[in-house]
Amino acid sequence: MKDSETPDKETLDKWQKDPNNWKWGIFYYNPEDPRGMVPKKIEWMGWTINFANTKAVLLFFGMALFFVFVTTLISKK
User: Where are the domains of the chain?
Assistant: First the structure.
């Protein structure tokens, strides 16, 4: 699939339901899926990141580092 092409809803649903795109059943990893955030396997439980999307992973680790930094600042007071 080309970068300029947007997958249709049917393809997105197929990718989400494919057990091969879920590592250990909880981590979504699909290099074909351009989305950074995807619904979890059980959609009412929220969203997760696509660990095959570099931007989403960088955002995830950036947020985690921010929370560690804030927690460290608070605990030093």
Answer: 9-75
